[in-house]
Amino acid sequence: MTPILLIEQVLNGLQSGVMLFLMAAGLTLIFGVMGLINLAHGSLYMVGAFAAAAVSAVTGSFLLALIAALAAAAAAGAVIEVAVIRRLYDRDHLDQVLATFALILIFSEGTRYLFGSFPLFLDIPKALAGPVSLPGGIQYPLYRLVIILAGLLIALGLFALIARTRIGIQIRAGAADREMIAALGIDISRLYTLIFALGAALAGVAGALVGAIQSVQVGMGEPVLILAFVVIVIGGIGSIKGAFVGALLVGLTDTLGSVLLPMFFAGFMEPAAATSVGASLSSMLIYILMAGVLLFKPTGLFGEA
Amino acid sequence: MNLLELRGINAAYGPSQALFGVDLALKQGEVCALMGRNGMGKSTTIKVICRMLRHSGGEVRFDGREISALPSHRAARLGIGLVPEGRRCFAPLTVHENLIAAARPGPWDFAAVCELFPRLGERRGQQAALLSGGEQQMLAIGRALMTNPTLLLLDEATEGLAPVVRQEIWAAVAKLKRDSGMALIVVDKSLAELRGIADHAVILERGASVWSGSMTALDRQVADQFLGV
Amino acid sequence: MRRETLLNIALFALLPVTALAALLLDEPFIITLATKAAILALAGVGLNIALGLGGLVSLGHAAFFGLGGYAMGILAAHAQSYTPLLESPFLIEGTKSMPVIWLVAIIVSALAALAIGALSLRTSGVYFIMITLAFGQMLFYFAISWPAYGGEDGLSIYVRNGFPGLNTLDPIQFFAIAFAVLALALFLAGRLAKSPFGLALSAARQNPERVETVGLAPYRLRLVAFVISGAVTGLAGALFADLNRFVSPVMFSWQTSGEIMIFVILGGVGRLYGPVAGAALFILLEHVLGGLSEYWHVYLGLLLLLVVLFARGGLIGTLAGREVAHD
Amino acid sequence: EGKVKVGMITTLSGGGAGLGIDVRDGFMLATKMAGNADLELVVEDDQRKPDIAVQLADKMIQSEKVDVLTGIIWSNLAMAVVPAATAQGKFYLSPNAGPSALAGKGCNKLYFNIAWQNDNLHEAAGAYANDAGYRNSFILAPNYPAGKDALTGYKRMYEGELAGEVYTELGQTDYAAEIAQIRASGADSVFFFLPGGMGISFLKQYANSGVELPVVGPAFSFDQGILQAVGEAALGIKNTSQWSKDIDNEANQTFVEEFQAEYGRLPSLYASQGYDTANLLLSAMEKADVSDQEAFQKALEAAEFDSVRGKFKFGANHHPVQDYYVREVVKEGDVFTNKIVATSLTDHADAYVSECKM
Amino acid sequence: MTEPILEIRNLCKSFGALKATDDVSLSLRPGEIHALIGPNGAGKSTLIKQIAGGLRSNSGSIHFAGHDVTPLSTVQRARAGLGRTFQISSLAMEYTALQNAMLGALGREGRVMRFFAPVMGQRNLCDAALAALARVGLSDHATIRTAELSHGQRRLLEVAVALTLAPKVFLMDEPMAGLGAEGSKQLTGFLDELRHEAPILLVEHDMDAVFALADRISVLVYGKVIASGSADEIRADPMVREAYLGAEELA
Ligand SMILES: Nc1ncnc2c1ncn2[C@@H]1O[C@H](COP(=O)(O)OP(=O)(O)OP(=O)(O)O)[C@@H](O)[C@H]1O
Ligand SMILES: Nc1ncnc2c1ncn2[C@@H]1O[C@H](COP(=O)(O)OP(=O)(O)OP(=O)(O)O)[C@@H](O)[C@H]1O
Ligand SMILES: [Mg+2]
Ligand SMILES: [Mg+2]
């Protein structure tokens, strides 16, 4: 492999990491900070993508589509928080698992009912289409650079919100002891609804942004969900920085693994077997990474005991 | 007018009733000692006042209005501050974050709390979970003060504190009462210390208020009968 | 008698009564469903030992379910094609005998649980959920891409394996086998919960520090529980594979882990008969609602939601009141 | 007497539901048009889970007492159901999946495939690559049996060099790394098999990457149901199929018109396969009674029905011997669709027929 | 003078820059109550944790019943006979008081890998647990879930569990905290007798109790032992008065 290709693949890995962070950002808030296991997060991601596709089909405007994604996901988030999640904060994690699993079923099939069983069309705006040339002769899709930017901005914004503002402190305090923070005069229910809606909105925006270069279809949220959980857990629950680093690690591992492992095995195996073994191993790689990280740091890279 | 008034409070945890008609009244700037043996309902009464626990009978009036229907954050915003039993600091947050999480403007701010408890200033960036027991207790008190309440509920707030610190706290309480007219309900085990600070006392026995009167009226005989000392 | 005891008796009787009724009505498929419920309940009983008693929220139990399934698939496939499983260093032949397969399934999944548990139990809480998920996923991807036993396509066994003295192809007889295994597992799990080990394990869930200071090692308690739990779930996997005469990597997927967990939660975590209630209800819903509408998942979702929101402590918790199961 | 009960097990919920719905709709259209009251159909949703499919098969055989099973979309589900169904003496007509195991050693006299053997469309792509003069292909597919079959199928016909061969993760959504490899590989063409959402993602990302090598693939990523979601990115791409809506014969024209009239959308490949499956069955019902297994099998083997593909016949392993076309993605008005531009293989059977001993 | 059963030599523990225990040496002899007092955050609980095994020391050694137990884990030390109570109650909250006590009895017996026989049917365990509850005055509450006990009752249960272990040494971290005046008085009397079963290393802020009970008192300030001696000596020590006792009325 030429150095330039290697650099390009590293870039791809980082890019895919930032994209992962974008997808995990909302979950970082809801799961990482509020401490709520929300399996339906992937559904909110899907809601965003579908709302964007629907609006873009009608208006042709990507900006409007993004706004629609944000609004639809935030609204869906607020509704499920008030109707369901709110009753579950003081319950066992397992009740949250069951309830949000039920929400997945409702959202997935509800979306299919509304939009049919076939994938929808959502494309990147013309202005952002096509590649740009980076130094070193690397051709890189402009839109992906935009995604990187969006991911970085959201990472910074979240970090500031959680670590630097009083609202962030109150959310974390609420996660530690809801009853107590309420007894000190904080309307934790309203705050949580807001934050949940914000997390949902982030998921929705990610769904729309990423949906434009992937397929917008029912069930698109579930693989993302697992990946997002992996990212957050590797980084350490509750740490935005951790989630970001975790996302980059997973992105790099996944990309470079799928490129390098088959080459590695080709060194001493016949080509067909090498590609196949390499590919098998690379699909396991992020799980091996996660298990490895947790074995050495049982609370993730930046997590606290 | 009474700042706080409990009349005939009944309360239960699920099926098991813990309070059977508790009465208590308190004026602005007064300190009331809430006493009784272990398990008699002191903490339950405190929880009812700050609306952490919904009572099933009787009424709670604060500042002239019936607050039974309010959620606990609204009661807190009316000016009820709580130092709960067992500290309940926000374990993953730092000392500073614990203090400012729910702070409301007023004379008690971070600097003032650090003056009362210098230890908290020294440990400002440390996670609450890693504080010593006594430091956590200081933190819980500081946290409640930072909400600048007009009524402060201290449920075993000096548990686990060194004698010097306890003395400082009682001194601070006396000052609070004197300077800012804060009212307090204090649950504490040391009768001697309470005598120095409380105006009157209410004694609970099996969830009912069985004795109330001024601190001076609480003589040996009463103490012996209800508190076992 | 306590309400929960009565309820448990009713639940226990539910499956065989259904199966017998189906036999009388000549509805063999209902028997198959009852068998499926019994087997999945068995998997749930296994998980419940780790989850309910030990507080170990494993999202990787599909690993054991799948290993049990593949133990059956691989042994039976070799027996079917008359090729030995291993020739050197010693000869291992395939087999079509259920008891032998069960034994292998139990041993293999117990060993896997020992390895996975030994590593995973260094973590706790959500990290434990995710690390068990990771091990499950590793096996899943391995099974998908490992060509020797069919990869994603899985392995078909044309004829159900045999059990001495019984005709396993007859639905009611196979049901009887599955149900007997379930009954045995329930009995043992019930005893386990009340045993000294159960007391210590459950205490380790509530407060590991406390258990340490009385001189018991939470790690060891949990590891043992995890191994027992994995072995039971592995056995269920072997039975499940035999029910379908088919295994595939789907058995390893996180959705499978999730479903087993749903049975447990639905029935009531830590309730001995919770998995039975959960699995039975889930299968009932799946088959009743499935016929109603193409979008039946919506109704399933709504029903599950109602259960979580309004039926605290799962089905059994609601029906039996909030008494604690273990005392 | 003369009645046939058909059990259709197909995917009607969840991610892959579109395919199952099309197969079902195509099948039902044919039965409706035939108006044959002797054919009774029960449909069940397998949720794309093998174990559910197996249980549904059991249910249909044991409780519903069906004579014929059909409907399964996915190879792994077919592998789970077909051997057990045929072992119990039921006919199975596959409207989509054609795993090699069932075409070769595992073939069965009661099992008929009316779509293709899994390798076929890829073989057609390989043959087309030769015709188009590609000498250096980069090929990729997901890492699972059908993906391996796909690349094997392509390589079986393709005569040029390989610039690269990559197995991607099943369900992968980001193809930046693969596209970078393609760019760097010096390939002159790309062959890919990425069914469902994977293909949509790949095509969108490929179109946006600035790599402009010609792409060829099997029809699955370009079919009617999915094409609208790919959009412009698919325009002009060549794909191989045994069917296209512009195949010029009367049966096909009727099918396309009636399907549109009935369901308000253009038919897909899967709909055409479902439709042909039903017609094959109806044709056999004309000739034989299903209770006479041997006669009914003969009637099916004869395959005397008007296929939307024009000519259609079975090979010795009950898999199709048919023509494969090269289609190009075009835009008709607002709708993306395909038109035939060439024929890549004629009267093509599959590679496993010699292994089949019935 | 009898040989100490527990001896701590030059124990150190730092958290970052903070020296929580700084070269502490202490001993505990059979039959005595050795009180450890000191300001909040002085390192008393840290020291208890180090002795019980929950925290690894940076340096120093711990000798118990003639053995160097420094390398042993919490579990091993508990088995060797170190019984500990927590400053903040640490109990199995879903269990009844009796079940918590049974757990202690089970820990003492040690044979936990028994999967079949019901634990509640084991007479010896049950009797030991009930006896312990009775000794702290919780007999009436045996079948109440710990979560439903009041704070003070939990503190007593904490002591009861330690009793069921029948340890060779008690490490008690503020057992009086949270007890009412009456409760404290009773517990004081109880500990006074308990010392004959096993000596007690007692951390306590309740000076009435400390002065009434302690044979020896050590004062810990900023991780260092600044004074050690009899109750009267300590009471009179000006350094201790300033750092810890303050102007307290002497009872
Ligand atoms: N969460 C709870 N659930 C059920 N019962 C409870 C709960 N908390 C307290 N109780 C019961 O209510 C009664 C009163 O308890 P409360 O905590 O008010 O007592 P207290 O006077 O504060 O005692 P202490 O001095 O020990 O703190 C006790 O008998 C206790 O067992
Ligand atoms: N894990 C830790 N990391 C950092 N600092 C710690 C940690 N544990 C304890 N400390 C600090 O070490 C000091 C000693 O704590 P320790 O709990 O031993 O005090 P203590 O003497 O028991 O006090 P108290 O009487 O208030 O319970 C405290 O200042 C505390 O903040
Ligand atoms: Mg109390
Ligand atoms: Mg301490």
TrEMBL record, chain A:
Subcellular compartments: Cell membrane
Sorted UniProt keywords: Amino-acid transport, Cell membrane, Membrane, Transmembrane, Transmembrane helix, Transport
Keyword Membrane in annotation: yes
Record's signal peptide: none
Domain of life: Bacteria
TM stretches of this protein: 20-41, 61-85, 97-122, 142-163, 191-213, 219-237, 244-266, 272-296
Residues forming coiled coils: none
Membrane protein topology class: Multi-pass membrane protein
Main location: membrane
Family classification: Belongs to the binding-protein-dependent transport system permease family. LivHM subfamily.
PANTHER family cross-referenced by the UniProt entry: ABC TRANSPORTER ATP-BINDING PROTEIN, BRANCHED-CHAIN AMINO ACID TRANSPORT SYSTEM PERMEASE PROTEIN LIVH
Protein name per UniProt: Branched-chain amino acid ABC transporter permease
UniProtKB/TrEMBL annotation, chain B:
Domain ABC transporter: 4-229
Keywords annotated in UniProt: Amino-acid transport, ATP-binding, Nucleotide-binding, Transport
Pfam families: ABC_tran (PF00005)
UniProt KW Membrane keyword: no
Protein family per UniProt: Belongs to the ABC transporter superfamily.
Source organism per UniProt: Sulfitobacter aestuarii
InterPro entries, A to Z: AAA+_ATPase, ABC_transporter-like_ATP-bd, ABC_transporter-like_CS, BCAA_Transport_ATP-bd_LivF, P-loop_NTPase
The name this protein goes by in its record: ABC transporter ATP-binding protein
GO molecular function: ATP binding
High-level lineage: Bacteria, Pseudomonadati, Pseudomonadota, Alphaproteobacteria, Rhodobacterales
UniProtKB/TrEMBL annotation, chain C:
Record's protein name: Branched-chain amino acid ABC transporter permease
Membrane topology according to the record: Multi-pass membrane protein
Protein's UniProt keywords contain Transmembrane helix: yes
Organism: Sulfitobacter aestuarii
Native organism taxonomy: Bacteria, Pseudomonadati, Pseudomonadota, Alphaproteobacteria, Rhodobacterales
Name of a matching Pfam family: BPD_transp_2
Family matches, as InterPro entries: ABC_transp_permease, LivM-like
Signal sequence annotation: none
Primary location: membrane
Residue spans crossing the bilayer: 37-57, 62-80, 100-119, 126-149, 169-189, 223-240, 260-285, 297-320
Location(s), subcellular: Cell membrane
Ion transport recorded as keyword: no
Keywords in alphabetical order: Cell membrane, Membrane, Transmembrane, Transmembrane helix
TrEMBL record, chain E:
Name assigned to this protein: ABC transporter ATP-binding protein
Keywords: ATP-binding, Nucleotide-binding, Transport
Keyword Transport: yes
InterPro entries recorded: AAA+_ATPase (IPR003593), ABC_AA/LPS_Transport (IPR051120), ABC_transporter-like_ATP-bd (IPR003439), ABC_transporter-like_CS (IPR017871), BCA_ABC_TP_C (IPR032823), P-loop_NTPase (IPR027417)
Domain ABC transporter as annotated: residue spans: 6-247
Cited Pfam families: ABC_tran, BCA_ABC_TP_C
Domain of life: Bacteria
An annotated Gene Ontology molecular function: ATP binding
Native organism: Sulfitobacter aestuarii
